[in-house]
Amino acid sequence: MEVIIRPNADAATDLVARVIAKELRDKPRLVIGLATGRTMESVYARLVQMHREEGLDFSACHTFNLDEYVGLSGDHVNSYRHYMNHHLFGQVNINLKNTHLPNGLADDFEAECANYENLIVNCGGIDLQLLGIGLNGHLGFNEPLSALRSRTRVKTLSPVTREQNALLFQSPDQVPNRAITMGVGTILDCRRCLLLATGEDKAEIVAKAFEGPISSMISATTLQLHPECSVILDEAAGSRLKESNHYRWIFANEPHWENFRAASPAIASNGFHVKLQPESQSAKGIATPVNSK
Ligand code: GLP
């Protein structure tokens, strides 16, 4: 596992997007695991910008999202299907048939979860898994005590998670109690993991997750077991790490980061800010990267 600390959230986001773009260019049929949450909104806006300005091509890739709320249909404004259509799928040349999320309205959840696992296997497995981190250290919705070998299943959400995610709902009591999520074992099967965390509120859990002992209480600690995992942070999220000088040295010296060290011109000159258009004003719900030329 590597920890990379970038000077600010824009630079961290840009790095994540550039790694995804490089993998996609190298392998157009890339199978990408996708995450949701506020942190990912800027990653998707940057990818949309790359699609528009650099022709980044999504036409042959396949995607599998980590999770979906139980009880919400895909067109519910708070469903993760809606989130993905809004922030990414509706704005790039992806084939919607190649985009997968668990069905939160399935009649038989056990069958739905088994089917999701099979779909991933039939697609050849996930090449690159994008991850955020919850305030309690969850990956997807793998809440504390999620088994280290768990597969896709329904999980009950913890009070911390429901409170964290309530910001995206109209009122806290609307947050579903349960979600379908890839398991920790499902996530660890991917070929490469890329976790992004930004902001001071993630600093404590980031330090516990990546410099603390592996424990099912914090599912993100299991990434320490993954042979190819990059954790990308801004200074704020990395502020409680003990070995940050070592991590900086690695980014500055490891040959495989050579082409990623210099900031993108847009970041270097202006920073990258994402302005999301309110849905009522945007038929397609377009996220507008400010500063794009
Ligand atoms: C949700 C998702 C997680 C994500 C988390 C982070 O709980 N299920 O996959 O990591 O949000 O959210 P944010 O980026 O808003 O902090």
Distance, first to last CA: 36 Å
The number of distinct β-strands equals 12
The structural class is: alpha/beta
> How would a textbook summarize the main sheet?
7 strands, parallel
What shape does the CA trace take? globular
User: Radius of gyration, rounded?
Assistant: 18 Å
Which strand order spans the largest sheet, edge to edge or round the barrel? 1-10-9-6-2-3-5
The proportion of residues forming helix, as a percent range, comes to 25-40%
Low-confidence residue ranges:
274-293
The hetero molecules present are: 2-amino-2-deoxy-6-O-phosphono-alpha-D-glucopyranose
The fraction of residues assigned to DSSP E strands is 15-25%
The helix-strand sequence is EHEHEEHEHEEHEHEHEHHEE
So how many helices?
9
Summed over residues and divided by their number, the pLDDT gives a mean of: 92
Q: Would you write up a description of this structure?
A:
With 293 residues, the protein is α/β, with parallel strands linked by helices. The protein has nine helices and twelve strands. The protein has helices at residues 9-26, 38-54, 80-87, 109-122, 159-165, 184-188, 203-211, 244-253, 265-270; strands at 2-6, 31-34, 62-65, 67-69, 99-100, 128-131, 153-156, 178-181, 192-197, 229-234, 273-276, 287-290. Strands 1-10-9-6-2-3-5 form a seven-stranded parallel β-sheet. A three-stranded antiparallel β-sheet has the order 4-8-7. It has a two-stranded antiparallel ribbon with strand order 11-12. Helix 7 (203-211) links the parallel strand 9 and strand 10. The longest helix has 18 residues, at 9-26. The chain is globular, with a radius of gyration of 18 Å. Residues 274-293 have low confidence and may be disordered. It binds 2-amino-2-deoxy-6-O-phosphono-alpha-D-glucopyranose.
